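fwd from M.: "can u put these together and see what the complex looks like"

so here's what she sent:
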Amino acid sequence: MNYPFAPQTKNYESSAVRDILKVTQQGHVISFAGGLPAEDIFPIEQVQIAYEKVFASGKSSLQYGLTEGFIPLREAVQAKMEKRGIFSHPDNILLTTGSQQVIDLFSRIMLAPGDVVLTEDPTYLAALQVFRSYGANVVAVKSDDQGMITEDLKEKIEKYQPKFVYTIPTFANPDGKVWSQERRQELFNLCSEKNVLILEDDPYGDIQFHQDEVYQPVAALDTDKRIVLYTSTFSKSVVPALRTGWVTGPAEVIKLMTQAKQMNDLHSSSLDQQALYYLLRDFNLDSHIALIRSVYYERMKLMKEYFDKVGSGLFTCREPKGGMFMWVEGNEELNTTALLGEAVKKGVAFVPGAPFYVNEPKHNTFRVNYSHSTPEKIKLGMERLVDVLTSVPVATKTI
Amino acid sequence: MNYPFAPQTKNYESSAVRDILKVTQQGHVISFAGGLPAEDIFPIEQVQIAYEKVFASGKSSLQYGLTEGFIPLREAVQAKMEKRGIFSHPDNILLTTGSQQVIDLFSRIMLAPGDVVLTEDPTYLAALQVFRSYGANVVAVKSDDQGMITEDLKEKIEKYQPKFVYTIPTFANPDGKVWSQERRQELFNLCSEKNVLILEDDPYGDIQFHQDEVYQPVAALDTDKRIVLYTSTFSKSVVPALRTGWVTGPAEVIKLMTQAKQMNDLHSSSLDQQALYYLLRDFNLDSHIALIRSVYYERMKLMKEYFDKVGSGLFTCREPKGGMFMWVEGNEELNTTALLGEAVKKGVAFVPGAPFYVNEPKHNTFRVNYSHSTPEKIKLGMERLVDVLTSVPVATKTI
C-alpha cells in the first residue's frame, strides 16, 4: 500500500550516528563513534538507593504526574542552574525526556516550512534533523575558534530573519569548541537588539576539565528571561537511562512548550524524576561530576597522545577543554566516510564528520568519543585506528 | 516581546480536563474528573522488586538504549497482544512514553494542515487536540450504541478522503461505548477497501467486567498488517508513572514513527522499560488485572446506584462494560459546564461533556471516573453530587 504520509516526512533522515552504532554493535569493534558516557563509573548503588526512597514514599509515587514535571526536582534544577548564574523559577522550568525533547518541542512551537534557523557549522546532527523535519531551512553562520563571527551573524539575521539561533557554546558536539566570553556577549546583544530567540544547548557544561576557567552560559546574560531558552540534561552527569532533561526561558515560550509536551506524551517518567530528586538531595553530585571530569580528562589525554604521534605529519586535533568528543581533521583529499569501512574491518569505529555540516561537508574530518571506552580499550582501539590512518596517504592540516 | 510562534500553535488548546484537575487539587474536593487508576491497589512491592532486578543486572542497564525500546519488553508485548489475537513481531513494535505519544507521533508523520481525521463523537479530547495541533480538520462520524454507523462512515470517507480513522472501540473514553463485532468488521472492510488507515486506541481493553463477552481488536482483523495501527499502554494495567505504551502496525508506518521518535526524544525511559520486563516475567499480571476488574466493577456499581436513584426522573447513564468512565446525560436545557462551579463549591468534581465533542457539544452531558476513588470517597462524593444534581431543574433523557 502507498501510505499517504505527510509531506514533511520527506525531510526525515535516518541518523548516520545511529546507523553506525548498529554496525558497530558487533562485539569485536571498539567504537569511538557514539556519544555514550562512561558506564564503569555510573553511580548505580546511589541510583538504586534513590529508587528505594521513591518506593518508600508510598503508592502515590506511581500515579500520573504533572506535565511540567515533579516540583521538588524542578526546585533542585533551579538551584543547580543558579550556580551557573541562571536565575529562574520552578514554575518556569519544564522537565523533559532528555534535552532532545527540548529541541523538538521548541522547534514544534516555532517552526513552519520555510522558516530559517541559524546554527554553527558543524553542529549537533540530531538538531539539524529536527529543524529540517519541520521544514525549516538551516543556515550556517561563519565561525572561528571563538564562536560565531559576529559580523556574519548580524548579516544573516538581517538577511534571513531567523526564528532562532541554535548553539552549543560550551564543549560543542561535534568539535568540542568553547565560545569566548566576548562572542557570547556579542551573540546575546545582537539577538537582544534584533529580537531573535536563542536556543542554548548545554548538555556538556558540567564536564569541564580546567576549573580555573569560567564559561558563562549565554542564558546568564538574559536576566529578563526574554530571548534565551536554556536546556541541559542529567544524561551526562548522572545516567542516560533516566532520560531527564529540562528547559527554562521566557515564560510565554515555556508555557507553550508545556502545552506541546502535554499533547506529545502527557509527562515524562515521574518515577525517574522522583529518583533524581532524592539523588540530588542526598548524593554528592558535585564530587561525582569531579570524578567524571578526571576520568574523561585522563581518557582524552590518552587518546590525544596517539593522534599527536600520528599527527606529526598526518592528522591534527585540538585538545578539548571538556565534554565528550575530539574532532580530527586530515588533508583535504581524505574521505573519512570511505575510511570508516576500512576502520570497521580492523575493529574500530568513529563518526565521519560530513553529516554534522550544514552546507558543504568537510569530508576530511571525523569525531571520536573518549568518554565511553576504558583506557585499555582506548589503547587497543587507537592502535587499530592509527593503523588505518597511517595506511592512507594523507598530509597534515591544522584546524 | 512578541514571540514569532509557528502558525499551528493557534490551534493549541489548554486541556479542560487538566485545568479542572488543577482546581480540584484542593484537598476538600472529591474528584471524579480525572482519568486516574486506583492508587490503593498499585502493586508497589512488585514494582520495587522489578527495579531491584534491573539494578542487579549491572551498570549497562543505566546506559542509553534503542529508540525502538528494550527488546525483551517488546517480546513480552508481542506475547501479550497475541492473547488478543494480534500477531506482530518485536521488530515491528515501538515502545513509547504512554500511548499519548503514539497518537502524537502517528499524527506527526501523517497530518498536514487541511487533512481530515474521522472520529467518533464524543471522543478522547487529548486526541482531538493533537490532530488539530497539526492543522487537521476533525470530522465526526455518526454513531449509535454499536459504534460508527457504516453508511455514514462510507459517505465521509468518500467525501473527505481522510488520512485516518481514530477510534477507541472498547470501553471508549469518555462514554464507555463498546463496538459490536459487526461494526468492527464493517469498519475494517470499508477502510481496507478504501485504503484508509485506522488508529485503534485501546488503553482500557484489559479492564473488562464480563469475562463471557469477547471484544476482538480491529487490529486482529488486519492479518496482513496493512491498515491498522494498534496502541495500548501499561498505565492502566500496571502503573501510570512508568509511562510505557506501545504501537504496532504496518512496518513502513512503524519505521517512520521510529524516526519521528528518535527526533522527538531519542528513546523513552529504559529503566522503566526494563523494570516492566521483569514485572511481566515474574509477576502474575493477569491476576493483578483480575483484581483491577473486580475493584473497578464494585466501584462502578456503587456509583451507578446513586445515579439510578436520582435518575428515576432526572438523569440517565448506561452501565459501562469495562474501562474507567461513566457517561451521564440530563435534559437538554442542562449546562454541565455551569453546573461544575456549583459542584466544586460543594466539594465534588466531574468533567463536563462539551470538550469531548467534535462538532456541536451536548452541554447536558458529563463524565465521571469511578476507578480512582475508594468506596468511602465515592459515597461521600456521590452524596454531594446528588445534592447538586437534584438542586437544578432537569428531566430524564435516555442515551
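replying to her w this: The two ends of chain A are 50 Å apart (CA to CA).
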